[in-house]
């Protein structure tokens, strides 16, 4: 309960800071030296935050749709041939460092927001795909058998039984993917994507601690909020699929 | 090839058709990029463009192997995929050698999209064959060692030296190995520190359940903070500590260099270590603990002699997570002056010198892959013992 209260407070503070950064200037001034500006003003923090979140949301949504689609395909009888390969690719792919994936995306796709989003999307596929596989393949055979016994068609079984039951596991893959994407997008500003990493890097380059702290704290709070929000969604899905099961 | 074994797999393997599609697309795309110097735009060359008749031969071989993959049993597919990987890599080296005039230090030949797609096609085929074969651990260890040795051998013989990445390497050989050492020191140093602190912490919160929520909560929050933010905040923090706490600077604490990066990596490593230690201890069946008590062991003895050894597989899993994660995250140290392969990555991004980016990214990926696979194998090796427990 205290955790939820702290998160709510953090969300309110974050919103206040993004809407009126200048009123926090006295707080940040002690972190600056030689009269450096305490608040990042090159670009509005609000627009950087929105662009950052938009990239993450777009990449993760697209990755979810495709990864769940692939996961369903390789667990159908017609796609079984691909299952062992799919498992290997999902687990080996995740040992690729996200930063390296981002760096490698540049020679292929160039600098900017688009390539970064594509890299986030590609990397985001793996955790969701792996969890979709785990969720669908881990269902008790009796459940599928029972659904078949009730005369459900394969499509009905998928939509009404398998996917709802696997939903909590799939959602935890989405959460992992979103947290990684949020972090990797921050580094995206080194390849000229418009994200909050810009603030941190500006701070590092000009030794302005206030910039580093405000960028870091904003991304950190966003990460916590997204993590908690998706976690709550997961719990709700778990309760729901549990209720459906009994 | 064994016809009897082939007969047990009627028809063609559909994954192999996918590999063939990827590989054939790769053949159609530029295999290497030729540039008169490091800065000008490149000209894409296909395998035959770059190597003449030898290129046609190599392309024909590649097509043959790709098509054969769909009809052969896994063991033969493994051999074929390995040959394919070797052929593609060596062709790239040969193409660079043929394109760069003798003695020219300025012309650059970098790897093109075609090369990477072909490499991906054969790597996928290899992965597919391996997952179908389900080899015994000893064989898989041998394969891993053989792969590492083969890569070292190919690099050592200088067959690839005319490629642009290797040119970048040759220009900064000493620096490369220094940064490699730094990268390993960051990844393993933070792992060691996390084990030294995290294991006792895990035991403490197992014995004192009241502390569990708070400790795991804090570590969870740390884990969620994006890496650049955490690395960034460490710099002013430790700069301030070094400047204002007497003796801190003398003890090696500094706001610049590797120290902030090491601490950031250490903080990220704590959650997997602590939570796996806790899960391992909680997973020990109650009967084991009672048996130990029945033998007259004290609580501390039971922990040290019976329970902690039983948590070994779970701890090894934590080591795998942390090591792979830290090898990747240590790249970010390059952005804050902490050294490691990340120095090359970010330098390369700044100069838009993509071969320099590769010089940093490829060893990082290789390191993460090898440690991930090796620790997976070690975990598999422990599995039977876990089954006995």
Automatic annotation (TrEMBL), chain A:
Keywords: Membrane, Transmembrane, Transmembrane helix, Transport. Residues 49-230 form the ABC transmembrane type-1 domain. It comes from the Bacteria. GO terms for biological process: glycine betaine transport; transmembrane transport. It is a multi-pass membrane protein. InterPro entries: ABC_transp_perm/SBD, MetI-like, MetI-like_sf. One of its GO terms (cellular component) is plasma membrane. It is found in: Cell membrane. PROSITE patterns: ABC_TM1 (PS50928). Belongs to the binding-protein-dependent transport system permease family. This is ABC transporter. It comes from Paracoccus salipaludis. The lineage of its organism: Bacteria, Pseudomonadati, Pseudomonadota, Alphaproteobacteria, Rhodobacterales.
């Amino acid at each position: 309960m205290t955790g939820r209260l702290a998160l709510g407070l953090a969300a309110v503070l974050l919103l206040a800071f993004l809407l009126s950064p200048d009123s926090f200037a006295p707080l940040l001034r002690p972190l600056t030296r030689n009269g450096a500006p305490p608040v990042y003003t090159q670009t509005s923090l609000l627009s950087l935050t929105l662009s950052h979140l938009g990239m993450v949301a777009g990449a993760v949504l697209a990755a979810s749709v495709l990864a769940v689609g692939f996961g369903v395909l390789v667990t159908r009888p017609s796609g079984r041939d691909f299952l062992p390969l799919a498992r290997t690719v999902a687990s080996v792919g995740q040992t690729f460092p996200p930063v390296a994936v981002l760096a490698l995306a540049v020679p292929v796709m160039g600098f900017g927001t688009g390539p970064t989003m594509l890299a986030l999307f590609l990397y985001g596929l793996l955790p969701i795909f792996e969890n979709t596989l785990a969720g669908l393949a881990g269902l008790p055979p009796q459940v599928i058998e029972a659904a078949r016994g009730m005369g459900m068609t394969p499509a009905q079984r998928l939509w009404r039984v398998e996917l709802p039951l696997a939903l909590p596991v799939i959602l935890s893959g989405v959460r992992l993917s979103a947290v990684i994407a949020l972090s990797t997008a921050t580094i995206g500003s080194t390849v000229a994507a418009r994200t909050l990493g810009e603030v941190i890097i500006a701070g590092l380059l000009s030794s302005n601690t206030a910039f580093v702290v405000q960028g870091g704290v904003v991304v950190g709070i966003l990460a916590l909020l997204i993590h908690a929000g998706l976690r709550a969604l997961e719990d709700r899905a778990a309760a729901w699929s549990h209720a459906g099961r009994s | 090839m064994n016809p009897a074994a082939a007969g047990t797999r009627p028809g063609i393997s559909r994954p192999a058709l996918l590999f063939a599609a990827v590989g054939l697309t790769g053949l159609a795309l530029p295999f290497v990029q030729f540039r008169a110097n490091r800065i000008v735009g490149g000209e894409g060359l296909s395998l035959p463009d770059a190597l003449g008749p030898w290129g046609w031969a190599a392309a024909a071989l590649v097509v043959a192997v790709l098509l054969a993959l769909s009809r052969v049993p896994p063991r033969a597919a493994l051999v074929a995929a390995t040959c394919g990987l070797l052929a593609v890599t060596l062709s790239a080296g040969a193409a660079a050698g043929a394109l760069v005039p003798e003695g020219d230090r300025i012309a650059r030949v970098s790897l093109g999209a075609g090369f990477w797609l072909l490499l991906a096609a054969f790597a996928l085929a290899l992965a597919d064959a391996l997952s179908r074969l389900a080899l015994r651990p000893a064989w898989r260890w041998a394969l891993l060692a053989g792969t590492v040795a083969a890569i070292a051998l190919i690099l050592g013989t200088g067959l690839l030296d005319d490629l642009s990445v290797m040119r970048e390497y040759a220009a900064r050989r000493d620096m490369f190995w220094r940064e490699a050492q730094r990268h390993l020191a960051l990844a393993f140093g933070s792992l060691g520190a996390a084990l030294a602190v995290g294991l006792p912490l895990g035991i403490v919160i197992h014995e004192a359940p009241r502390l569990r929520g708070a400790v795991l909560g804090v570590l969870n929050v740390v884990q969620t903070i994006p890496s650049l933010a955490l690395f960034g905040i460490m710099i002013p923090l430790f700069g301030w500590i070094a400047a204002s706490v007497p003796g801190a600077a003398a003890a090696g604490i500094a706001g610049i260099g590797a120290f902030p990066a090491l601490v950031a990596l250490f903080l990220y490593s704590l959650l997997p270590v602590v939570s796996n230690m806790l899960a391992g201890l909680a997973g020990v069946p109650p009967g084991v603990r009672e048996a130990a008590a029945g033998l007259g062991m004290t609580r501390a003895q039971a922990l040290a002699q019976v329970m902690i050894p039983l948590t070994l597989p779970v701890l090894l899993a934590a080591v795998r997570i942390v090591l792979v994660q830290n090898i990747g995250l240590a790249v970010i140290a390059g952005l804050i002056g902490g050294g490691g392969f990340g120095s090359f990555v970010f330098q390369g991004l700044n100069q838009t010198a993509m071969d320099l980016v590769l010089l940093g990214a490829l060893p990082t990926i290789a390191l993460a892959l090898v440690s991930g696979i090796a620790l997976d194998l070690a975990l598999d090796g422990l599995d039977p013992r876990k089954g006995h427990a």
